[in-house]
Design a protein that fits this description.
30% helix, 722 residues, Glycosyltransferase, nine-stranded antiparallel β-sheet, Beta-galactosidase, Chain A, domain 5, alpha+beta
C-alpha cells in the first residue's frame, strides 16, 4: 500500500483532500515497533509428552494440549508428532470418535497458523462438541475480549458479564461474533501475551470461545458448534445454541491463529495481535459518495429535518421518530448541546458550510443556533445547560440513565455532565474563530468556552480529574469514571487560543491522572452517558489530548500515550464483517459493518458511526509517528484509518424504501444474532407491542411475520425493514 501524498493532519486540509485517502481502517504497527515487540526472539515449538509447547529460552510461554472435545472427556491415544526445526509442528491423535490431525506453522515471527481436522472414525453420525486449547505458561495478569470484556469488567459493567465465569463457576461461553475480532481473545502475564482468533472461513468462524483459569494459568478455548451461555436480559431472549452433526467418515476442518508476543509494557502487546488480525482480514471499502456529497447530505438533513426555531428554543432537534408513517422530530429528550445531538457542532458545521460554499442560509442558521444557547443557556457558576429540556423543566436529564449519579436523583434535581460540557465548550471556542472568517465577531461565544475552562481550572478535583456530573450551582455530584476527560479537549483549545499557562498546566495534570487511573489499565468508562460502564467513547478525548500535548510540548512521551489510546479504540473496531443472511435488513441496507465501532461492554452489542469522531486523530498520529517510529507504522496508519469515515457512506444519504430523509444515519445498528436486534426491528416497524416474540435464527421469518402484523402500521415494509 502506497503512502498518501496528502498532509493528513494539516489544519488547512480540506474535505476534498481527505477524500483522496485510500480507505480501509484499523490501527497497525506503531505501538510495538519502538520496543521490537513484534519479534518473539528465540520462540520454538517442542513436544512435551502429548502436548506441543512454545518455549523461549527456558521459559514455557504456552502449550497446546491434545484435547479434541469440549465437555466430553476421552482418553488420548496414538499421539504422533512431526517437528521441523522447532518452528513447524504436525500432530495426530485419537480421542473418542475422532481422528485428529493438526499443523501449527509460523506465518511471521510469533504469528502462527493453526489448522485442525476432526474426522469421525465411527460408522454412526456424531453430534460434535469440538475443542482446541492453548494454555499459558504464566499466571494471567490481564485478559481482554475486544468490545465485551476488559479484564473481566471488574468495577464497571452495567448489563455486562463480570469475570471469566458465571456465579456457578462455569466459564462464560461467547459466540465468536461477540468479539470484534473473530472469536478474538487475549491474555498477558509474566512478560508474555497470547492472542487467539479464527479465520473467516465459515466452518472456522461459526464457533464459540472462552477464557478459563486452570491451575493458576489461563486457557484460551475455541469450541464448535457456536453457542453462548451469557445472561439474557428479557424473557424473549435466548442464548445462542447451534448444533453440529458430523456423519460417518466426515471431517470438520478449521483454521485459527495464535499470536505470542513479549509483554514488555503492560497492555501494549495487544497491538501485535490486533495488527495481525487487521492485516489478515483487511479489505478496501468503496465509498458510495464522494466527501463533498456526504457533506451536502449531512447539511441538508440537519437543515430540512432537524432545524427547530420557536419561542422555546432555536437550534437542532436530537433526531426523528416515525409516527403514523411520518418522520417527525422526537418529542422527548429533544435538545442536547453535545454527545449525540451535537447542537453546538451542528451550529459550527453550518458556519463552516458558509465558509466553503457561501450558503447564506447556513450562516444564518449556524449563527442563530449558537447565539441562542450562548445568550440563554449560561449559568452563574460559569457552566451552561447541557440539555435544553432541563431548562424548560419538562423532564430530568437522566430520563434514560437513572444511575448516572451513582444514586437515585432527588425530586426536582437537575445536573450537568462533563461529556456535553466538553463538547459544547470546544465547539464554542472553535465557532468563535470560524465566525471571524465570515467577517463577524462573537466574543460571547469565546467567553462561554473560556468560562467553562476557567471553572474547571478553579474546581479541579484533588486527584487532578474533572468529575462526571455537576449541579446547576457547580457542585460536583459524581467524581468517578473517565467522563471528565472530555474537558481536556476545550482546555487545550483554550491554551492554543490564549497561551494562558493555567490551561496547559491543568490539562497536563488531568491527563496524567486519567492515564494512570484508567487508560494504563485499559479500562475507560462512561463516555457514553447513557451507560455507566466500560466503553470506547471515554478514550476519545484522551487520544485528542495526547496528540495536542505532543504538539504543544514536543514531548514524545505523549505520542506513546496517544498510541495506547489509539489501540484501546482499535479494540472496539470490527476487524471483520459478521456474515448476514441475504434477507437481513442490514444486508438490504447495504450497510458496511467492517471497520465500524462498537459502543460499550453491555450485552446489547451494536455499532454506530461514532468512530468518525476520532478517525482524523488516527491520521494525525500517523503523520506524527512516521518520522519517529521505524518500519511501516506510519504508512499503515495513513492507508488504514480514514475508512471508518467512509464506511458509513453506504448509510448516509440512502433513502430506504423512500421513507427516510436524505442524509440520515441510524444510531445504533445491531446485528441479529441476539433477540435485542428483533426488538429494534419491531420498533422500526411501529409494532413493538403487537409483534410476537421472534426466532433469531430465521431472518426470513422475521420479515414475513413483521409484515403480517397490522397493515396500517407495517404497510411501509413491503420488502425490507430499515
Amino acid at each position: 500500500m502506497k503512502k498518501s501524498k496528502e498532509k493528513l493532519d494539516s489544519p488547512k486540509m480540506t474535505r476534498r483532500e481527505l477524500g483522496k485517502v485510500v480507505i480501509p481502517t484499523a490501527l497497525a504497527g506503531t505501538l510495538f515497533d519502538p520496543l521490537n515487540l513484534n519479534a518473539a526472539p528465540g520462540l520454538r515449538l517442542e513436544k512435551d509428552g502429548t502436548d506441543l509447547r512454545f518455549v523461549s529460552g527456558s521459559t514455557t510461554v504456552a502449550r497446546v494440549p491434545a484435547i479434541a472435545q469440549g465437555e466430553a472427556k476421552s482418553a488420548v491415544n496414538q499421539v504422533k508428532f512431526r517437528m521441523q526445526a522447532g518452528q513447524k509442528a504436525s500432530r495426530s491423535f485419537q480421542s473418542g470418535p475422532w481422528n485428529v490431525t493438526e499443523e501449527i506453522r509460523p506465518l511471521e515471527q510469533g504469528f502462527y497458523e493453526w489448522k485442525r481436522t476432526w474426522k469421525n472414525r465411527t460408522s454412526a453420525g456424531v453430534e460434535a462438541d469440538l475443542c482446541m486449547e492453548i494454555e499459558s505458561g504464566y499466571s494471567p495478569e490481564f485478559t481482554l475480549i475486544p468490545g465485551i470484556s476488559y479484564n473481566g469488567n471488574p468495577e464497571y459493567g452495567r448489563r455486562a458479564v463480570k469475570g471469566l465465569a458465571a456465579p456457578d463457576g462455569k466459564p462464560w461461553l461467547f459466540s465468536a461474533f461477540r468479539s470484534y475480532i473473530p472469536a478474538g481473545h487475549y491474555s498477558e502475564g509474566g512478560g508474555w501475551s497470547i492472542f487467539v482468533f479464527t479465520s473467516l472461513e465459515h466452518k472456522s468462524l461459526f464457533c464459540a470461545f472462552s477464557l478459563l483459569e486452570r491451575n493458576g494459568r489461563i486457557v484460551h478455548r475455541l469450541l464448535w458448534p457456536e453457542r453462548d451461555n451469557l445472561p439474557v436480559l428479557r424473557p424473549d431472549q435466548t442464548p445462542v445454541q447451534e448444533k453440529l452433526a458430523v456423519g460417518p467418515s466426515e471431517e470438520h476442518s478449521v483454521t485459527a491463529y495464535i499470536v505470542l508476543a513479549p509483554a514488555v509494557e503492560k497492555r501494549r502487546a495487544l497491538a501485535v495481535g490486533t495488527d495481525h488480525a487487521w492485516r489478515l482480514n483487511r479489505r478496501d471499502v468503496k465509498a458510495s459518495f464522494p466527501p463533498e456529497r456526504l457533506w451536502e447530505l449531512g447539511i441538508q438533513y440537519a437543515r430540512e429535518s432537524l432545524w427547530y426555531d420557536k419561542d422555546d428554543f432555536t437550534g437542532f432537534s436530537f433526531g426523528l421518530d416515525r409516527v403514523q408513517d411520518k418522520w417527525v422530530q422526537r418529542s422527548t429528550g429533544r435538545f442536547e448541546i453535545g454527545w449525540c445531538n451535537q447542537n453546538a457542532a451542528l451550529g459550527t458545521a453550518f458556519i463552516q458550510d458558509y465558509i466553503w460554499n457561501r450558503n447564506e442560509d447556513s450562516l444564518q442558521k449556524g449563527e442563530k443556533a449558537m447565539d441562542f444557547w450562548a445568550n440563554n443557556g449560561r449559568l452563574p457558576c460559569g457552566l451552561f445547560y447541557t440539555h435544553w429540556d432541563m431548562k424548560l423543566g419538562k423532564e430530568k436529564w437522566a430520563y434514560h440513565n437513572p444511575t448516572y449519579l451513582g444514586r437515585p436523583t432527588k425530586p426536582g434535581e437537575y445536573f450537568l455532565d462533563t461529556v456535553n460540557l466538553g463538547h459544547g465548550a470546544y465547539q464554542y471556542l472553535l465557532a468563535s474563530e470560524l465566525i471571524e472568517k465570515c467577517g463577524k465577531q462573537k466574543p460571547i461565544w469565546r467567553q462561554l468556552g473560556l468560562d467553562t475552562c476557567n471553572f474547571f481550572v478553579d474546581h479541579v478535583l484533588p486527584d487532578g480529574t474533572f468529575g462526571k456530573a455537576y449541579s446547576l450551582n457547580g457542585e460536583c455530584l459524581n467524581p468517578a469514571f473517565t467522563t471528565g476527560a472530555h474537558i481536556l479537549w476545550p482546555m487545550l483549545k483554550a491554551y492554543r487560543m490564549t497561551h494562558d499557562a493555567r490551561y496547559l498546566d491543568t490539562a497536563r495534570r488531568a491527563f496524567r491522572a486519567y492515564l494512570e487511573r484508567d487508560l494504563d489499565k485499559f479500562i475507560c468508562t462512561s463516555g457514553a452517558v447513557d451507560a455507566d460502564t466500560i466503553d470506547r467513547e471515554a478514550a476519545v478525548p484522551l487520544l485528542f489530548a495526547a496528540l495536542d500535548l505532543y504538539e504543544l510540548t514536543g514531548s514524545k512521551e505523549y505520542l506513546r500515550h496517544a498510541e495506547l489510546a489509539a489501540y484501546y479504540l482499535a479494540s472496539w473496531q470490527w476487524h471483520y464483517a459478521p456474515p448476514m443472511h441475504p434477507e437481513s435488513p442490514i444486508k438490504e441496507l447495504d450497510y458496511e459493518w467492517f471497520a465500524g465501532t462498537g459502543i460499550t461492554v453491555t450485552l446489547l452489542q451494536s455499532q454506530d458511526p461514532w468512530g468518525t469522531l476520532w478517525a482524523f486523530a488516527w491520521l494525525r498520529l500517523a503523520k506524527a509517528t512516521t518520522g519517529y517510529l521505524e518500519g511501516s507504522s506510519g504508512a499503515m496508519f495513513q492507508s488504514g484509518h480514514p475508512g471508518v469515515v467512509r464506511r458509513q457512506s453506504s448509510l448516509q444519504g440512502r433513502r430506504a424504501s423512500g421513507r427516510k430523509p436524505d442524509g440520515i444515519v441510524r444510531l445504533p445498528v445491531a446485528h441479529a444474532r441476539w433477540q435485542e436486534a428483533l426488538r429494534r426491528l419491531r420498533q422500526l416497524a411501529g409494532c413493538v407491542d403487537q409483534c410476537p416474540s421472534l426466532d433469531y435464527t430465521d431472518p426470513l421469518a422475521q420479515l414475513e411475520r413483521l409484515r403480517s402484523v397490522g397493515k396500517s402500521r407495517c404497510s411501509s415494509l413491503p420488502s425490507r425493514i430499515a
